Amino acid sequence: MAKKSKKQQPGGTPATVALTSAGVEFTVHSYDHDPSHPSYGEEAAEAMGVSPDRVFKTLVADVDGALVVGVVPVAGSLDLKALATAVGGKRAAMADPALAERTTGYVRGGISPLGQRKRLRTVLDASASSHPTICVSAGRRGLEVELAAGDLARLTEATLAPIARA
């Protein structure tokens, strides 16, 4: 069962620190991560009792030699061609996981679109705007933040585009 907290925990993650610093309203959801679960995002949705179309995963792709973040519902997958198009690129491929971890400062399964070591260009799937709030990683496995999609888009300077595939 997920635990909820509206207060910033001491020693929060860079994502929660960024949200607190920006004065954005958010809720932290924590749960016990099961390393044997086949999907980080689906595990989060199940643990929090939230529909998988409201829980978004953060994926790092290489678009024409530049790292770009795609944020899509865990219920679907990232359409790499649509991501490339959204940023004016031609080709996209998933980034090397080690490079994604080094660049963002987060571990795979805990990469947040917020508070990254090096701020990457971000594209948020357009479906996010159809929900009052969405959940994204708070910067470690077993920790999610729930916030308004508009706040996430503003803080990450994200482009909204249809980049998810069902």
Shape: globular
Strand order of the largest sheet: 6-3-4-7-10
Strand count = 11
How does the major sheet shape up? 5 strands, mixed
Number of helices: 5
- Sketch the topology as an H/E string, one letter per element: EHEHEEEHEHEEEHEE
The share of residues in extended strands comes to: 25-35%
Low-confidence stretches: 1-10
Q: Roughly what percent helix? A: 10-25%
Alpha-carbon distance between the two ends: 27 Å
Structural class: alpha+beta
Mean pLDDT: 92
Rg from alpha-carbon coordinates: 14 Å
Annotation keywords:
5-stranded mixed β-sheet, 166 residues, globular, 5 helices, single chain
Describe this structure in words.
This protein has 166 residues and is α+β, with helices and mostly antiparallel strands. Helix content is 25%, strand content 30%. It has five helices and eleven strands; from the N terminus they run E-H-E-H-E-E-E-H-E-H-E-E-E-H-E-E. It has helices at 14-22, 40-48, 80-86, 97-104, 149-156, and strands at 3-5, 27-30, 56-63, 66-73, 77-78, 92-94, 121-125, 134-140, 143-147, 159-161, 164-165. Strands 6-3-4-7-10 form a five-stranded mixed beta sheet. Strand 3 and strand 4 (66-73) form a beta hairpin. The two termini are 27 Å apart.
